[in-house]
Design goal:
This protein is α+β, with helices and mostly antiparallel strands and about 120 residues long. It has helices spanning about 15-20, 50-60; strands at about 1-5, 25-30, 45-50, 65, 70, 75. It has a domain at about 1-75: RRM (RNA recognition motif) domain (Alpha-Beta Plaits, 2-Layer Sandwich). About 15% of the residues lie in helices and about 20% in strands. Strands 2-3-1-6 form a 4-stranded antiparallel β-sheet, covered by helices on one side. The longest helix has 11 residues, at about 50-60. The radius of gyration is 32 Å and the shape is rod-shaped. This is RNA-binding protein.
Length: about 120
């Protein structure tokens, strides 16, 4: 089972997190995502437990517990949403280079007025 642990300070280390989780072993993995540009932690972590029961016990015991002055928010992690990208619109490339705009007025007979040469 994978848990999301939020509301962590940016200074909270993986070792501090492991200490808080020590009573809820076995833990398979702790992942602290970092900002792509700065490389600093983003304030949350994902913790993967060996089985569901251990994860549920940890979630119940640790939700709201203070770590470095902040109450941890512990929930079951949701699968990352994969957004289906819509197919790109197909644009008709019907370009008529020699086409002119006919802006001649319409005469009383409903036809375009024809001009005689000057």
């Amino acid at each position: 089972m994978k848990l999301f642990i939020g509301n962590l300070t940016y200074e909270t280390t993986e070792e501090e997190l492991r200490e808080v989780l020590a009573d809820h072993e076995p833990i398979l993995n702790i992942h602290r995502p970092t900002d792509r540009e700065t490389g600093k932690p983003r304030g949350f972590a994902f913790v993967t437990f060996e089985n569901r029961e251990d994860g549920e016990n940890a979630m119940e015991a640790l939700d709201g517990v203070k770590l470095n002055g902040r109450e941890m928010k512990v929930n079951e992690a949701e699968e990352r949403r994969r957004f289906d990208r819509p197919e790109p619109r197909r644009v008709s490339m019907d370009v008529s280079i020699n086409r002119a705009v006919d802006d001649r007025p319409i005469g009383p007979d409903g036809k375009r007025v024809r001009y005689k040469g000057i």
